[in-house]
Write a structure and sequence with these properties.
Elements: H1 3-23, H2 28-35, H3 39-46, H4 54-61, H5 81-86
Helix pairs in contact: 2-3
Length: 106
């Protein structure tokens, strides 16, 4: 992957993390606490100073399970990992299994 593509991917993940935080109506402090990172690290992610860490990504995906009191609205369902990592993906044609051919022995 070219450096520009990798940079765009990292920024996209950061943008989607911020989108989830905005949807939850949480401050950076509350959201960072809910996903298990520091507010400073979250701020650095949202402003592209650091790439999203694995703990941050895992925390966002599991956010609906957060069992800590907080202000804001937790999502009812887990954040879709594929969406978080690569963004909206256009639907491809439906999967078609390969045709099985009979061998001469059958």
């Amino acid at each position: 992957m070219a450096p520009a593509e990798l940079d765009a991917l990292r920024k996209g993940i950061a943008d989607r993390i911020k989108e989830v935080r905005d949807e939850c109506e949480m401050s950076q402090d509350d959201f960072a606490h809910a996903i298990g990172i520091t507010r400073g690290h979250l701020s650095d992610i949202e402003t592209y100073r650091v790439e999203p860490s694995l703990p941050a990504i895992i925390g966002v995906i599991g956010l609906h399970h957060a069992a800590i009191p907080m202000k804001g609205v937790l999502p009812d369902d887990p954040v879709d990992a594929r969406w978080l990592l690569v963004g909206p993906v256009p639907m491809k044609r439906k999967y078609r299994p390969a045709r099985r051919t009979r061998s001469k022995a059958e």
